[in-house]
Design a protein that fits this description.
The protein is α+β, with helices and mostly antiparallel strands. It has a domain of about 90 residues: Alpha-Beta Plaits (2-Layer Sandwich). The chain contains eleven helices and ten strands. The strands form two sheets. Strands 5-2-4-3-10-7-9-8 form an eight-stranded antiparallel β-sheet. A two-stranded antiparallel ribbon has the order 1-6. Strand 3 and strand 4 form a beta hairpin. The radius of gyration is 20 Å and the shape is globular. The termini are far apart.
Length: about 325
């Protein structure tokens, strides 16, 4: 990926910030192209190349776990070697409440030194379920062990789905690439109604579209930048963007990373395209020169894998929200 690819990717996310909660599926190729100064056909060709070359492996659609009264926690599995990563990713499917896993490599400055797998799980911080899950994870990596759970805070839903909404959720999960128009055809409902409901689910933080990217195919590095105080986070983030206009920043939200920072200094995470070890050191030096930056640590992310079992169980019998008493006229 070059700088233009990364800018195009950034345009697909809400608020143009890389979010662990996913992209905005309503951003059309034309809108993304305009945001980065590309023609629609050029942008479409780049997105097709991402898929053809195995970088963009597809998209998962998740209902917000908070709709089911659940939270999210993260575990870090420390591996003895990179060669074990694929085996661990395969075996995580059997772990209770596992949602998604990321593999990566970090040097001694990184929050994840050596090879590690970060695992997002449901309700990882409470009671017997937490203890049972931690034991399952420990058996996967007996050589170096498990860190966590670290509590994470998903965005709170602002919309309550009813029976039709849950039908739309299931249809979107079955066909993640379908627009609201195609979802309407799939469900045999009026297009305007499908679009209104789909928009409400997305804007109400009920429905997340999680892309699966194979970052081992892209020469880029994730930098964890810690500021000297939480009130300086946004200033640091803006300064980073001025230094590297094409970087892909994570949402500036300490809750995303849970209770890993103690004391809770500010954390900014950004992906920067780099092609060599010398370039990594150069980027780290430039980031350290930004006012209020205390430490900079690089990570080399590799792959991501999603696990569907928990969501499938919940959607077999979703919360029974009341149907909307009135629906605006579909012809308006």
């Amino acid at each position: 990926m070059d700088d233009l690819d990364l800018s195009l990717l950034r345009a697909m996310y809400p608020r143009r910030s890389w979010s662990v909660w996913g992209i905005d599926p309503r951003v059309t190729v034309l809108e993304a192209a305009r945001a980065v100064g590309l023609g629609r056909n050029a942008a479409r060709l780049r997105q097709r190349r991402w898929r053809a070359e195995g970088f963009w492996l597809g998209t998962d659609v998740w209902p917000n776990p908070a709709l089911f009264g659940a939270g999210v926690a993260r575990y870090e599995l420390l591996l003895a070697s990179t060669q074990r990563a694929d085996e661990v990713l395969d075996r995580l499917d059997a772990v209770e409440g596992a949602l998604r896993a990321y593999t990566g490599y970090g040097d001694e400055r990184s929050p994840h030194p050596g090879t590690s797998v970060s695992v997002l799980c449901i309700d990882g911080t409470r009671g017997a379920v937490s203890g049972r899950r931690r034991e399952q994870l420990r058996r996967l990596v007996p050589e170096r062990g498990v860190r966590g759970p670290f509590a994470m805070t998903p965005p709170r839903p602002t919309y309550t789905p009813d029976r039709l909404d849950w039908r739309i959720v299931r249809a979107a999960r079955a066909a993640p690439d379908h627009s609201s128009r195609r979802l309407a055809r799939d469900l045999e409902i009026p297009e305007r109604r499908a679009r209104r409901r789909w928009n409400s689910l997305i804007e109400g933080r009920c429905l997340w579209y999680i892309p699966n990217f194979d970052w081992s195919r892209s020469p880029s590095v994730v930098f964890h930048v810690v500021s000297d105080a939480s009130e300086h986070v946004r200033a640091v983030a803006h300064a980073m963007e001025s230094v590297y206009p094409h970087l892909l920043p994570l949402e500036v939200d300490p809750a995303v990373y849970g209770n890993r920072l103690d004391p809770p200094e500010g954390l900014v995470v950004a992906r920067v395209p780099v092609a060599s070890a010398a370039a990594v050191q150069q980027v780290a030096s430039r980031l350290l020169a930004i006012p209020h930056v205390r430490t900079v640590a690089p990570d080399y992310p590799l792959q991501a894998r999603s696990y569907d079992r928990w969501f499938a169980q919940q959607l077999a019998d979703p919360p029974d929200g009341a149907d909307r008493p009135t629906e605006p006229a579909d012809s308006q």
